[in-house]
TrEMBL record:
This is Transposase. The lineage of its organism: Bacteria, Bacillati, Actinomycetota, Actinomycetes, Kitasatosporales.
Length: 55
């Protein structure tokens, strides 16, 4: 997301880059978007069964 939303152009100096990164980070943290998890625990146990030991 950072690359697409903030770093999609040439930035000539380090100070400008730091300012842009700080502004992007603050906006992203303020927005507090939620994650829509669609991968259930049951699906994970099937798909990733090698990571889940048998009881």
């Amino acid at each position: 997301m950072l690359t697409r939303q903030c770093l999609d152009r040439r930035i000539n100096d380090l100070d400008t880059l730091n300012t842009e990164l700080s502004a992007w980070q603050n906006a992203t943290n303020t927005d507090q978007r939620q994650v829509d998890w669609q991968f259930t625990t049951h699906d994970a146990r099937i798909k990733l069964r090698h990571l889940y030991p048998k009881n």
